Amino acid sequence: QARLVESGGGSVQAGGSLRLSCVASGGSFGTWTMGWFRQAAGKEREFVANIDRTGWMPRYSDSVKCRFTISRDTSRNSMYLQMSNLRPEDTGIYYCNMYDSWGQGIQVTVSS
Fold first, then answer.
1. Is the distance from CB of 27 to CB of 98 less than 8 angstroms?
2. Which helix (H) or strand (E) element contains residue 19?
3. Tell me, what's the pLDDT at 26?
4. Cβ(59)–Cβ(53) under 8 Å?
5. 3-state secondary structure at position 103
6. Strand pairing report for 46-51 and 58-60
7. Mean pLDDT of 19-46
């Protein structure tokens, strides 16, 4: 399994922006689709966005479409999630995923 480490979370007011990063090590980064998931308190983990190994085919959940942008940089074994126009309902722990590997998660809090 690869090791995935997220960074960039924090607290912002509604309408603000954050950029999450995920760095992978110990795995075949260029082989797999990578994705972001999130889990709000008391709720199940849900899909946010993913991007194929080429970086040309991003996919988003309806709730974040047109506000979030996913990207990856194979040369840095990294994936990013640019989050704009954040809403309180975006609050949760965000997880990086690559095949069967998961990061430890990072908190994002959006206040109204």
1. yes
2. strand 18-25
3. 82
4. no
5. coil
6. antiparallel
7. 93
Are the C-beta atoms of residues 59 and 71 closer than 8 Å to each other? no
Q: Classify 79 as helix, strand or coil.
A: strand
Q: Distance from first CA to last CA of the chain, Å, rounded?
A: 38
**CA atoms of 77 and 30, how far apart (whole Å):** 8
2 close to 98: Cβ distance less than 8 angstroms:
yes
Residues 22, 82: Cα–Cα separation, whole Å:
12
**52-74: pLDDT as tens digits:** 999 899 999 999 999 999 999 99
Does the pLDDT of residue 6 top 80, yes or no?
A: yes
Q: Is 77 left (phi over 0), alpha (psi -120 to 50) or beta?
A: left
